Structure formats: structure tokens, C-alpha cells
Amino acid sequence: MKSIEEAKSAILSAVTPTSHTESVPLLESHGRVARETVAASVPLPGFDNSAMDGFAVRAENSLGPGMRLKVVGEQPAGRDGGLTVGAGEAVRIFTGAPIPQGATAVVMQEDCRSVGEGEIEITESISPGDFLRRAGSDLCRGQSVLKPGQRINEGRIGVLASQGIAAVRVSELPRIAIVTTGDELVPPGQELEPGQLYNSNGAMLGSLARSALGNVIPLEFRHLADDLTASAATLEELRKSCDILLLTGGVSVGDHDHVKDAAFQAGFSGEFWRVRMKPGKPLFFAAATDSILFGLPGNPVSAFVTFKIFVESALWKWCGASTPCEMASKFSGILAEDFENKGDRPHFVRVRIDRNAGKIHPSGPQRSDALFGLSQADGLLCIGAHGRLNAGTEVSVQLI
Q1: Is the distance from CB of 277 to CB of 346 less than 8 angstroms?
Q2: Could you tell me which of 168, 122, 125 has the C-alpha nearest to residue 145?
Q3: Are residues 307 and 201 in contact, defined by beta-carbon separation less than 8 angstroms?
Q4: Dihedral (CA of 349, 353, 354, 358) sign
Q5: β-pairing, 197-198 with 185-186?
Q6: Residue 214 in contact with residue 242, Cβ under 8 Å?
Q7: Measured distance CA(47)–CA(147) in Å, rounded
Q8: What is the pLDDT of residue 325?
Q9: From the CB of residue 112, how many other CB atoms can be counted at a distance below 10 Å?
Q10: Which pLDDT band holds residue 253 (cuts at 50, 70, 90)?
Q11: What is the pLDDT, as a whole number, of residue 379?
């Protein structure tokens, strides 16, 4: 049985980033992994401009409260009017407008008042550079704005658009098969017979995969009956057509748990089986030259937790992310009650976060089948083997 860190290391060591890339429109690149370097060709700002609505002036030593200036023109945002500001003069200016020749500062309109036809009086002290945004002060020409391996987020889309870029090269998305197992499962929408359950894991894992990599990710859904020969044939077919197989169920020690044997017959080599953690102990991982396979536990909470802890990082490495968990986020808060782990494995407790109070509460029963409790959870709190965390302790929670 591997530790959590040993299992993570084994998985990431077996994952090779894809060499396949594609160019996608900028607005469709959100969440994708960049596979090119982009350097700025346009400085930001592109020209000296005003940070405020007000008046462009020469900030000389004598410019301060009580100083009167003659307004000699108006410069709106847009085309540069070619105006010039001399001593004792001001130009009415608006946010983002080009700074007139000779101006060294902008006086906010709140810091001056009209004192007659075409004149203003300054009411506050003015210093050179006030409310003036210099060209290139945010981004210089030639500066890197995107590197291979970075996940493209809203901010990066914004800066790429500022450079006139309409498309970006990214990793192709993996072809993922979501494979559920068990004769007792039926699809949602059908009538249940005695002893049957609705197949919740398939929909949940598909949603997790799309949450990790985007709604455009291609998914194939299959269901395996409890038959070794048929399961092996299906897995061999999927090994040849898909990059990543996410199986759930059939990886424990029951007489009808065929996933490990079927995977071996289908051409996969077992990397490990079982991880020292709760929930999620019977995790199985195997690899072939053309795909990788995760055998996730059948209990829904176990499948969810092992996806978040192991599969998500593997998906990002497959896509070429320089930091597989780059987008993982944490929340620090105070435990609202005692948490105790009496077992000999680290326990990932599902928790609910009260952000207004900064408090962390358990999210329902902590059984591996407690799907409703999972649906109410905001994060995972890891408690070490035989560990105890008292109420009032500040902890960090992995958001889910």
C-alpha cells in the first residue's frame, strides 16, 4: 500500500505530456494550457495618458492651492488632438486620454473649481507625475505575457487581447472515457427494480473532468457488466481510442471485482493498487504506451476524493501544465468543532465553509457512500492518522 505522496509521484511519473497542439480562438482558450511563448509587441499603456478626469497641467513649484490656470483646450479619450500645455495653462482631459505636450501632471476635477470664463483655480497641492500613466509602465515591448505550460485564465486572455492576438496555441484536450461498473447500476431516467441503484458516478466523474479541463473536453461513457472477458475487450478497445480511462467500481477484493484483471488483459501494466488514505483506499492505477487508467473506488465519495487528489493533477500534466495544480485554491478558517481521526490512515473530511464567520463545519456524515453530504461540501480537510484538531484551530481547506 502506497502513501498519498508515493501514489502521486508514481502517477505523475507515468504521465507524459501530449505533443499534440492546436490553435484556438482567444475567446475559446479559457482554461486551456498554453504551448507557445508570446512576447508583448504593444506596450501598456501604449502612450502617456490620464488616470483621472480633470485637467492636464505643468506641475511647477508654484502650482498649488489658490493658483489660477487658463483652460486652453479639451482632450477626450481617443484621437490625440496635438494640444500643448504652457505655464499657467490647463487642458481639460478625461480618463485614458493622451497627455498633451508639456503637461507633467493631471489635477483631478475634484481638486479644482471654475472661477470664471475659461479659468480654474487649484484647491490642492500638485506634484509632477500625479495621475499620469506613463507608456510601458505596466508592460514593456518584448516582455513575456504567456509561457508554455501556463493555464490561460481571464487575466491572460485580457493581456493577450491587448496585444491584438486573436488565436493562441494550446495543448489538444485528452480523449477521456468514463467507465462505470456493476450489474446493479441503471442509467438515470429508468425505473429502478429491487436491488438496483442509479448510476451517479458516471455523471459525477464526467462533470469533474469537465470542471477540470473545460466543457469542450471530449468524453465517452461506457458501462461494464460484471464479466471479465467482456470487460477486458471493452478496455482494450478504449485503450486504443482514448488517452485516459476513468473507471469507477470493481477495484476491491470481491468475487465480482474484475477491473484489475481486465486491465491487465487489455494491455495495461499495474503501477499500484491501494493507497493509505480514507476514503479512497482501493485506488488502482495502470498505464500502457498509449493511455493511462485510473480504477477509482465505487463508493461515490471515494471516487470524488481520489479524483480531486490524484486524477486532476494527472490531467494537467497530460496537457503540459508546468504546475499541475496551478489553479488549486485553499481557504483558511477556524474549526467550529472538534475533528478527530481515530484511524491509521489520513482522512479527507468533507467540510462546509461559513465564509461570513470564517468557520469550518463538517458536511454531514463522513461515510464513503454519503453522497448528499458530499453535495453540501465546499472543501476537503485532511486529518492525519490518529490526529485530532480542536475547535478554534486555524486550518487550511482544499476547495472543491
Answers
A1: yes
A2: 168
A3: no
A4: positive
A5: parallel
A6: no
A7: 26
A8: 61
A9: 22
A10: low
A11: 96
